[in-house]
Design goal:
CblAdoTrfase_CobA (chains A, B); alpha/beta; cobalamin biosynthesis (chains A, B); homodimer; Rossmann fold
């Protein structure tokens, strides 16, 4: 396999075929519209990916809205980094992790207050991209009415991009989404190998 | 299922059990060390996730090194956003997409020059986190010697975090990594639904 990969003619032919496929795809893909992207599954990197897309959107000069539906007891690096940037509106739901509160009513109230913030962003076409971080958790526990969420997402401005993260995305949300990535665990330092959760990567 | 999820006692018990598991895991996880994280698979969000971790590390005051092993013809939003930040050293490999160059020798040369930059970062403990974006592609095509890469990664400062992205991560790299996420495609707007690749999310 290695030797074949090094054959320059074969390599050029393969790259040529690949280039053709890419060009055809680009030609076919002509719908200009805001994309609804869902990042789900048990693997590491869902929220990070959402925040990377925030950075990319900011790099393109867009205004970005961020609503975090689950917040740790400690302030996160993302919050420290993004909160005070121009072009960023950053909202964090007013409770700790669900498994620290143990109070369903309080969680429901906090989640719905956070959704009110998100819903207002989803009506405002000045936001080019909205990140709804860990929304899937709030949906999984039925903290927020799924139909309300789906309606607000569908009613948003045509060019607005939305990124939703969290494991266990509901099937109805997956159906509505344009792109869905399922992140699977192959190995996990924190769970499998006893490596301490750390600042910087917080695994 | 929905009804059971709404039973407050059951909910409190479940959250209680979850909290215990989390506490046990945190108690067990006491190795303080830099983590090698690999984000691979065909799904959307690998590079974004790496850039999100860059933002998180910067939020914690770390110095970050970024080397991009594949560069598109156009400047990316991430580059525009991160390149000129203090605490960021940003290096982009000096060629277009491999399927645009069709010249194996040129690709090998460019990839190795980029690895030289990465290798120097991997010897410098002032970098808290290093992102090697799309390195897996360069390894897949044998542009860079895998043993050299593995040696440099293993020889890095103990507390340095490294994030490597790209589909088709080699098995030897997966073995060396602490955490590996495989990103699977559930749906893809660009491929499946003819939605145009756009600034902001670039799907």
């Amino acid at each position: 396999m290695r030797e074949r990969a090094k054959d320059p003619e074969r390599h050029a032919r393969r790259m040529d075929a690949k280039q053709k496929i890419m060009q055809e795809r680009i030609a076919r893909a002509q719908k200009e519209q805001g994309v609804l992207l869902v990042l789900t599954g048990p693997g590491k990197g869902k929220s990070s990916s959402g925040f990377g897309m925030v950075a990319r959107a900011l790099g393109h000069g867009m205004k970005v809205g961020i609503v975090q539906f689950i917040k740790g007891a400690f302030s996160t690096g993302e919050e420290a980094f993004f909160r005070d940037l121009p072009n960023v509106d950053y909202h964090v739901m007013g409770q700790g992790y669900t498994w620290d509160t143990k109070n369903r009513e309080q969680d429901v109230e906090a989640a719905n207050a956070a959704w009110d913030v998100a819903a207002a962003m989803l009506k405002d076409n000045s936001y080019g991209l909205i990140l709804l971080d860990e929304l899937n958790i709030a949906l999984k526990y039925d903290y927020i009415d799924l139909d309300r969420v789906l309606d607000d997402l569908q009613g948003r401005p045509e060019m607005q991009h939305v990124v939703i993260t969290g494991r266990s995305a509901p099937a109805e949300l997956v159906d509505l989404a344009d792109t869905v990535t399922e992140m699977g665990v192959v190995k996990h330092a924190f769970k499998d190998q006893g490596i301490k959760a750390q600042k910087g990567v917080e695994l």
